[in-house]
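Translate sequence into structure tokens.
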Amino acid sequence: MTLLLAVAFFLAPPLFFPGPFDDFPRAFAAYWSSGGGRGFPADLQHLIDQQFGYHLVRAVIALPLLVVLVALAVRIRRFRLPLAVLALAAATLMILNVQGFVSPFGTLLPRLAHHRANADLTADLAQARNQLAHGPISPALHVMLDEYVRWHLVKGVLSGLLAAVLIGLSVVAWRRGRRWYSLLPTVPALGALGVVVANATTVANPAPGLLLLLQGSW
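Result follows.
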């Protein structure tokens, strides 16, 4: 069951939603030149829909995979540690893919920083960077900022939930006298809390982060 879900996680989404996501920079350039707003051109909307479906399928598969791994970790004491590590990896993958279907446009934005040489897109990104640095912000850039904030907000909230679960496991193990086991969830919990802080900072002031992304430094 676990192996089947793991294979499906990687193979199923590309079969149902193949993209091609490499077309995103071209579709974005057409969107930017149109003046932007929530009304995406057909080509861009198609890619956003594909991205939404791709990550939705992965999230739907990751959830039962996580449940199975947690159940196995509880039942099989001999392999509890490696199974717990795999469960943590599944939780991380689920968070990433929930981000993907909640903010599919935001998930596509990093592709702009690694586009092939294209004079029109290069000029568009230069305009976007200039607006972020100096203003005023166009409707298209408003949409990009909104999606960027949503992407980081979801990651921060879900990372906070993950940290709470890990801290809870640590407390339970400590109360049962398993001091060594209580320390194991602490490290990823601290990492998750660090992710929460980083994403909360970005949500509070998204422009510098989006500027770094468009500069290829993200």
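Note: Residues 2-214 form one domain.
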